[in-house]
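hey can u check if this looks right to u? its 127 residues, i copy pasted from the old doc so theres a chance i mangled smth
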Amino acid sequence: QVQLVESGGGLVQTGGSLRLSCSASGRTLSTAAMGWFRQAPGKEREFVAAIRWSEPITYYEVSVKGRFTISRDNAKNTVDLQMNSLKPEDTAVYYCAAQSAYTNSAIIKLMRRYNYWGQGTQVTVSS
């Protein structure tokens, strides 16, 4: 089992920045990749970004590419999401997730490929 705890959400104005952090504990040695997803009110949960645990490879959803940066610290078992140039449409609950089995780039963005989830942290961007 892997336990995930997110932190760093809050309220920010359009154009501002926030940094989310996800702390992993438990059987983290089995982690293949970590990801961030978000769910806005009335919408389905969607992929935001992912990073492989043992390789410096990252993936981003098109609308956040160039504004968001995902990074990891294997020694601390943390994954961060630096969010810059925030827009009102970025408002959502952001979830950290972990994969325990390797997936290729075509499916690493799929929710069902993630075994463990955090409780989520609210990000609100005011216009």
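The two ends are 40 Å apart (CA to CA).
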